[in-house]
Amino acid sequence: MSVTIKDVAKEVGVAPSTVSRTLRDHPSISRETKEKVRKAMDKLGYVPNVSAQNLANKHVNTIGAILPVIGSKERKSNPFYLEIITAMNEEASQQKVTLSIASGKTQQELLENVQLMYRQKRVDGFIMLYVEEDDMVLDYLIENKVPFTMIGQPYKFHNEASCVDNDNQLLGWTATQHLVDKGHERIAFVTNNNHENFFRERFFGYQKGMMDNQLTAYPAMPLITPDDFIALDDFLKEEQPTACIAIDDMFALRLIQMLNLSGFKVPDDISVISFNNSIFTSLLHPYITSIDVNATQLGKTAVQEFLLQLKEPDAIKKRVIIPHTLIENETVLNRKN
């Protein structure tokens, strides 16, 4: 038979409400009484019913982290999400809250998991780790006034969304300008992701960087299907770009491999620059020149902003920009030398 609050109260000689307040560390209960109650709990083996407490309290002190639908092997292996979640977990621990993961194999399954977590009051709200166009999860959060913060910039609901992000247009511009400063003029933008908002923003920044330098921007070159590989090979031979901007470090490794198979050396023939400054930049030589998006700060700030929003739900939603840093390694050739 399990021990109840009434059993603890009887052992100490106090009212059950005193035990309940002690569990919540209520200031109205003296330190001496709290000590007696806690010793009685230990003696009797009382285990608090966390679910019942959550239902009684306004907040459950748990944040749901919503992962994107993991549709490809590359996305499953992307260290960006692990780094973000690790940082969020560290910050949550500092703030005396916990983190719970919401995931799904499909968008519908992800939505159902998010709905269940919130309906059962297992979380106070969510931090979205991705941005998709026409996203049913985001629609649900907005329609039901669920507290949330997003890492990234949404396609809609700009005034209703609290966001933590890099300036992805500036990232794309910075990568382009770095290549131009090294003497490159024929610069291509290659990607395996052409639907998420950060791709569009970075590509727009590339276009602006080319325009600012009176250079011709190429259309984005996807590298997703077998036909794309053939098209990129033809493009490289016809246009002879001297540099490529890759959408992230993990994809940059694939791009460098593809360039090598096509007979191009990196950086001697074609330079490569990418984004994230993840572990993939230093797995193989040449080490990849990359723009550090400061994933750790993204994750920690997202937790801080969510908790601020939870405390002041009527506060104006804002977009917090995390600065980036260019990390020069070995994949960009200085053609001015």
Automatic annotation (TrEMBL):
- Highest taxon, organism lineage: Bacteria
Against InterPro entries, the record matches this protein to:
HTH_LacI (IPR000843), LacI/GalR-like_sensor (IPR046335), Lambda_DNA-bd_dom_sf (IPR010982), Peripla_BP_I (IPR028082)
Alphabetized, the UniProt keywords read:
DNA-binding, Transcription, Transcription regulation
An MF annotation (GO) of this entry:
DNA-binding transcription factor activity
Looking up Pfam families in the UniProt record yields: LacI (PF00356), Peripla_BP_3 (PF13377)
Signal peptide as annotated in the record: none
Domain (HTH lacI-type) ranges: 3-57
Recorded hits in PANTHER family, A to Z, give: HTH-TYPE TRANSCRIPTIONAL REGULATOR GALS, LACI-RELATED TRANSCRIPTIONAL REPRESSOR
The protein's name in its UniProt record: LacI family transcriptional regulator
